[in-house]
């Protein structure tokens, strides 16, 4: 692997200056003028510049099937009000950001000091924040608004090899390798992330001492099985100020 410094990489990176959208991360604090400079001085590793999977494989370990765009929202626990917009993608299997240089090559920047960022391709927008999930610091997608509760989705990737067998009259298995996304949900309160299932009973164990949150959950979810969209609405409602 070829190691380069990120500040040299960014001299040729394809980007434009723009005002970054406000992050919805619960990690945000105050503005810092040299936030982008810190990111640009980070370490970078050369990587392959292709998001296509080999023949005989379906699915993808990447967020997008081609380049999208990424901007930074928070570095060193400080908000970035004006971020460079990078051509970028994310390797969900490795939980790594990939950015495109002006030389057409792909680079993996050091992101240990990044707390929040947005990815966009077409109408598809994803907000990612760094969080401690089951003892590991990693990027997870933030689904809800900022407030007392934050809903996170950890996007994992599983890979299964082709296992097709033909025994004459009986054929079993799949004739292709496959990448599949696996989602794990967390509800964050007081900076503590608790793993939940998409079951009402599971969510109630986290919020059962908060009557306002319980009422919001009951408003949007009736049965025990929970759809992601309904849970997002419920958590957003939990964060709404209560009228006095």
Short description:
The protein is α+β, with helices and mostly antiparallel strands and 244 residues long.
What would your notes on this structure say?
With 244 residues, the protein is an alpha+beta fold. It has helices at residues 6-10, 35-40, 200-207, 211-220, 228-238; strands at 3-5, 15-19, 43-47, 57-58, 68-75, 78-79, 82-91, 96-100, 106-109, 114-121, 124-133, 136-142, 149-160, 165-166, 171-172, 177-189, 192-196. It has a 15-stranded mixed sheet that branches. The chain has a two-stranded antiparallel sheet with strand order 14-15. A hairpin with a 4-residue loop joins β14 and β15 (171-172). Mean pLDDT is 80; it is low at 1-36.
Order of helices and strands: EHEHEEEEEEEEEEEEEEEHHH
Strand content of the residues, in percent? 35-45%
How big is the Rg?
A: 20 Å
Distance between the ends:
60 Å
Helix content: 10-25%
Q: Report the principal-axis shape.
A: flat
Described by strand count, sense and barrel closure, the largest sheet is: 15 strands, mixed
Low-confidence stretches: 1-36
Mean pLDDT score: 80
Number of strands: 17
Structural class: alpha+beta
In DSSP terms (H or I, runs of 4 or more residues), the helix count works out at: 5
């Amino acid at each position: 692997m070829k190691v380069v410094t990120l500040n040299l990489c960014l001299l040729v990176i394809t980007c434009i200056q723009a005002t970054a959208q406000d992050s919805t991360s619960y990690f945000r604090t105050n503005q810092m003028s040299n936030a982008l400079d810190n990111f640009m001085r980070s370490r970078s590793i050369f990587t392959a510049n292709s998001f296509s999977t080999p023949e005989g494989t379906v699915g993808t370990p990447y967020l997008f099937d081609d380049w999208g765009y990424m901007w930074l929202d928070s570095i060193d626990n400080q908000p970035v009000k004006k971020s460079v917009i990078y051509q970028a993608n994310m390797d969900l299997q490795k939980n790594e950001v990939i950015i495109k240089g002006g030389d057409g090559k792909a680079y993996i920047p050091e992101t240990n000091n990044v707390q929040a960022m947005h990815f966009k391709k077409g109408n598809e927008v994803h907000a990612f924040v760094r969080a401690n999930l089951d003892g590991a610091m990693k990027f997870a997608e933030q689904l809800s608004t900022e407030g007392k509760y934050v809903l996170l989705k950890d996007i994992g990737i599983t890979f299964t090899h082709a296992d097709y067998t033909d025994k004459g009259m009986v054929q079993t298995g799949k004739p292709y390798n496959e990448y599949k996304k696996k989602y794990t949900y967390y509800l964050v309160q007081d900076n503590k992330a608790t793993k939940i299932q998409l079951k009402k009973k599971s969510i109630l164990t986290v919020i059962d001492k908060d009557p306002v949150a319980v009422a919001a959950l009951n408003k949007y979810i009736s049965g025990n099985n929970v759809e992601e969209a309904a849970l997002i609405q419920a958590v957003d409602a939990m964060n709404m100020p209560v009228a006095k």
